[in-house]
Amino acid sequence: MSASRPWWLSPWLSIRAQLALGAIFVAAAAPKILDPPAFAHMVYNYRLLPGAAVNAFALLLPWVELLSGLALLLGVWRRTAAGLTVLMLLMFVGALSVNLARKNPVNCGCFDPHAKDKPRAELLADMRWTIARDAGILLLAAQVMAANRRGRNVS
After folding, report:
1. Is residue 93 part of a domain?
2. Which domain holds residue 48?
3. How far is CA 61 from CA 29, 36, 42, in A?
4. Total structural domains in the chain?
5. Considering the entire predicted model, what is its pTM?
6. pLDDT, tens only, 20-55
7. Residue 137 lies in a domain
């Protein structure tokens, strides 16, 4: 490791963060791609998009997740893929936060687009946990982006 490079930008850490981030997004995309109607229902429950946009969003988002995740796993377009994951994570945290502020309990649909029958208080607690988890994943994405700035590409 170079003396001028901080430990959190080391190639050893960067490749692991990149692979973990890629695996997370591939794992999140697969069930949504396999069951678009269930995911569209999850998106609708957030009450953030006009009804006409829900299906298009529910069809497009999982493919963006999948392609970003695969790009990270394969080591191509790393900075672009990490940038897309940052944008998606900010969108996810924002959507959950808005619904938490509204006290509108929603199943996040992150890794399983099928609704779970849970009490309101448990759903709200799950939403807090999901926001914290997504903030942690956001740190992975930020690390991958920082490590892949021009001149610092991980080989």
Report:
1. yes
2. 7-147
3. 8, 10, 13
4. 1
5. 0.87
6. 999 999 999 999 999 999 999 999 999 999 989 999
7. yes
